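On clarity, I found the account of how folds are encoded harder to follow than it need be. For illustration, here is how one protein appears when written out as sequence plus structure tokens.
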Amino acid sequence: MEDQLKNAAEQAKAKAQELASEAQEKYEEIKGEITEKLQSIDVEEIKAEASAKAAELKAEAGEALAEAKLKAEELAAEAQEKFEDLKEEASEAIDKATGFIKGLFGGENTEEKK
């Protein structure tokens, strides 16, 4: 029986060594693949792509800014035009009110009536 236990232990040890050897081979294979992939990464290409994307975004931002400035100028021109219209209407209203007041007093100066 002792021989059987020794034999079983030796078989287990041999199997463990076989599995350890296979694991080591698999580790080396995976390590090699990872190393190969890391070496194939082109850092300069990634930098160039990032730079191109940044330039594209900068151009888009510039276009958006130009559009915003143009819209602001249009809105400012519209506001100025409305202001001028209101100013003219107010001036006309003041002229009418002045004429009305003069008409009430017969065109006389209010200081002279007092």
The first helix runs from residue 2 to 40.
